[in-house]
């Protein structure tokens, strides 16, 4: 009889490449799963998760240029433009030349887009309920993730030829 052995290195085993030790893996799986939890909640509003994020930004900040929205959402304009086009086709926002600078495109909510906010106000509580986690734990996670975002942005802004932490620098 052969015993099937599973490859589950313990976190104490020192295997730095163990999948379950990787922050990138945990973030990736968590992001996919949380977005999947949002899907059925957003569906009745006619929104996808990325569209919901655009709407959140506009509800909070009001009319914005595409550039401002791009910075708020940390999305490049090429990714943001199709989202805006679909939201405009759904009648939730309008895109027009920015009166302050005709070179820029301004985005503003329509009456229907503003009205959708009332229905969307139930979403956060519904997500907390679906996740079954204490609000305090989710708030602590959001705070930790905000620090991870800042740290990763700082790391990306650093010199390109720096060696990753813990690895020797390349010799010339």
From TrEMBL:
Family matches, as Gene3D superfamilies: Winged helix-like DNA-binding domain superfamily/Winged helix DNA-binding domain
Q: Which residues form the HTH marR-type domain?
A: 20-150
Record's subcellular location:
Cytoplasm
Entry's Gene Ontology BP terms: response to stress
Q: Which domain of life is it from?
A: Bacteria
Record's keyword terms, sorted: DNA-binding, Transcription, Transcription regulation
User: By what name is this protein known?
Assistant: Organic hydroperoxide resistance transcriptional regulator, MarR family
Organism the protein comes from? Modestobacter italicus (strain DSM 44449 / CECT 9708 / BC 501)
Top-level taxonomy: Bacteria, Bacillati, Actinomycetota, Actinomycetes, Geodermatophilales
List the gene name. Answer: ohrR
